[in-house]
Amino acid sequence: MKIIKYIQLFNYLVTEEDANPINACRTIQKIRQLPNELKLAVLDVIEGKIPYVEYHDISLEELINNDKMKPIRAILMLDWIRREPAIAMRYMEIEQHKAPQTVTESDKEMLEKVLEKLNSKESSIDEEENKEDIEIIEK
């Protein structure tokens, strides 16, 4: 029989997952409600291992690496996916669109050109034609 020592879990949550003490206690209450498979995953995490756990084609490792979740939060997300897959996946989809978007080099170049044109006092933006403009043709 394996046992999660709650003081060890509390210390892990506060030090490794940057939880404040109140949120750490709340998280421990949520962990107490988890099925055994996920409790074992929590035990592995506090021992420094990342176990393979997957529900509905979403794995713990994927949540940690791709969604940048801390391991315990990722385990709780997997539990939500297990219990309410449609709602949890919709939430994840919405959150991904809120995440900061990466800017490519071509985007940076285009933004620099636009800023340069906006800042130049010599050119009139209304009169200037540009091949990069998007033209809308009405029928």
Task: Lay out the secondary structure.
Blueprint: H1 6-15, H2 21-32, H3 36-46, E1 54-55, E2 58-59, H4 60-65, H5 71-83, H6 85-98, H7 105-119
Antiparallel strand pairs: 1-2
Helix pairs in contact: 1-2, 3-5, 5-6
Short description:
By secondary structure, the chain is mainly alpha-helical. It has helices at 6-15, 21-32, 36-46, 60-65, 71-83, 85-98, 105-119; strands spanning 54-55, 58-59.
Average pLDDT confidence is 82
Assign a percent range to the helix content.
55-70%
What is the count of DSSP helices, taking H or I runs of 4+ residues?
7
Order of helices and strands: HHHEEHHHH
Q: Main sheet, how many strands, which sense, barrel? A: 2 strands, antiparallel
Radius of gyration: 24 Å
Strand content: under 5%
| Dominant shape | elongated
Distance between the first and last residues' Cα: 74 Å
According to DSSP, the number of beta strands is: 2
- Unreliable residue stretches: none
Q: Strands of the largest sheet, in order across it?
A: 1-2
Oligomer: single chain
Helix- and strand-based class? mainly alpha
Q: What would the keywords be for this entry?
A:
single chain; 139 residues; two-stranded antiparallel ribbon; elongated
Task: Describe, in plain words, how this protein is organized in 3D.
This protein is mainly alpha-helical. The chain is built from seven helices and two strands. The protein has helices spanning 6-15, 21-32, 36-46, 60-65, 71-83, 85-98, 105-119; strands spanning 54-55, 58-59. The chain has a two-stranded antiparallel ribbon. Strand 1 (54-55) and strand 2 form a beta hairpin. Helix 3 (36-46) packs antiparallel against helix 5. The radius of gyration is 24 Å and the shape is elongated. It starts with 5 loop residues before the first helix and ends in a 20-residue tail after the last helix. The mean pLDDT is 82.
